Amino acid sequence: xxxxxxxxxxxxxxxxxxxxxxxxxxxxxxxxxxxxxxxxxxxxxxxxxxxxxxxxxxxxxxxxxxxxxxxxxxxxxxxxxxxxxxxxxxxxxxxxxxxxxxxxxxxxxxxxxxxxxxxxxxxxxxxxxxxxxxxxxxxxxxxxxxxxxxxxxxxxxxxxxxxxxxxxxxxxxxxxxxxxxxxxxxxxxxxxxxxxxxxxxxxxxxxxxxxxxxxxxxxxxxxxxxxxxxxxxxxxxxxxxxxxxxxxxxxxxxxxxxxxxxxxxxxxx
Length: 269
Known about the structure:
The chain is α+β, with helices and mostly antiparallel strands. It has helices at 15-36, 42-56, 79-131, 152-155, 168-178, 205-223, 248-254, and strands at residues 137-141, 145-151, 186-191, 231-235, 256-262. Strands 1-2-5-3-4 form a 5-stranded mixed β-sheet. The model is unreliable at 56-76 (pLDDT under 50).
């Protein structure tokens, strides 16, 4: 009996390989797309996932996963993991963007505040030249305030907090300058050197510096119409020196009264 001739196998790749290749290409494109995005809208991403699932059956046909576990073998069980992953990815991107915006805003804020303080310092310097007291008062500024520094020896006798009579004209002119900044917080600080003091009226330098600042503040209140609540005073004692207390010259510089005129950016009611 003659043997039946065996049929030749179909030429080319099996049909299932074409489907498998399409699937792999789609998955590759899908993940390349995901990792190329800097920010992802979670809602739009879910719409893309749903579209791919219904149109190409990408998700229900394979066996890959994100992290541990199977994505396809038990259905689309990790779809929520996809959402969590991209929500976290999006959140981190938005946080970084927000931090950059806050940093830029802070830098702009500080630049504007410094510019305003500089303009205030220039105007105050012009007024002091007009009054002829530019050599008696030091003017500095930063992003918060303009600083006027008065030598304590010009204002007070040693160990006392009452303003000297010959210092009233100087304080009068300072008060006139301050009236131009009636809506700004003004703080007057008293400072001393580190030489101990103790008598019936002032038990230490802290108390003496506080009374000196208060004397200047009260006098300015009495000669101007400045809002009393915006005019503050405080004593800093010996704790904020600007020079070396080991020398007579340094101690003389540390015995001072400072007037801080805050700009509009730093004035909080």
